[in-house]
Each structure stands twice: as structure tokens, then as C-alpha cells.
Design brief:
Helix 1 runs antiparallel to helix 3 and helix 2 runs antiparallel to helix 4. The chain is globular, with a radius of gyration of 20 Å. It has one domain. By secondary structure, the chain is of the alpha+beta class. It starts with a helix and ends in a 13-residue tail after the last helix. It has a 3-stranded antiparallel β-sheet with strand order 1-2-3. Strand 2 and strand 3 form a beta hairpin.
Amino acid sequence: MTVIQDLNADRKQWMSLLAKCDAAELDGAWRALDRSFDHQVLRAPEVGSVMVRGRAGAVGAPFNLGEITVTRCSVRLSSGQDGHAYVQGRDKTKALRAALLDAGMQTSAASDIRDKVLTPLSTAATHRQTTRAAKAAATKVDFFTMARGED
């Protein structure tokens, strides 16, 4: 049971990373992998929409925020592993590659995929997050240290 839970936790991480990464970054990492996967397409990349729900202040009652476009895809490798992907937007190539990488991570190619694809994508995501946090921090106003103008 623990091995399955660990695999599910790891899979959740790499699927999240593949879904959220920039398409150009994934394209570059895919080319660096320089590997093809013999596969059958179970569900061709198709575009649809999903309802996004939000909460006011992250604690309030949920409400429908709006719809976003997603592309999904499912593949099966010739060795029997299934791969699935849901990515935001209309990029069918990104969805197909993400599904192939999901399936590939369940094979002996996992360490190669982790080194050449997932690690660079994770590093780029961390850099983007750090940069965005730094920009946000630069605009922070500490109201407790501001003078009110009264003497």
C-alpha cells in the first residue's frame, strides 16, 4: 500500500509540473530527451472547458469563477503503461507530450525523463515563482511604519 501511495504522490507532482509548465520550456526539454515512445493514442488531444471554482478570501463559500479552456489526452505505450494529461489552453502537442511523459515515467526511462525533463522544468518553475514573489514584495507597503502626517 505504501509503494502505491508513494507512486501516486510522485505522479501527482510530475503531472502537476507538466500541466503547469510553459509550452516552450516543455518543447525544449522534450528535444533534450531525444527519445521516442512507441505508443497508441487512446484519447486524441481534444479541447474543452472546465468550470473553475473559487472562495472569497480562500475560506468563504465556493462560487463559480468562470470557465477555462483545457486540452486532454491519453496514450498507451507498447509496453502497456497508460499516460494521461490535462493542460490549460489549446496546445494539443503539449497535451500529447505530457501524456507520453506520464506514461514514460512509469517505465525504466523514468530516471532519464526526470533528469532531462522534470528537473529543468521544476527549476524553471521555481525561478518564475521566485521572480514573481520578488516583484510582489517590492510593492509591499507596511502601513504600521508609515507616518500619518500628524505631529
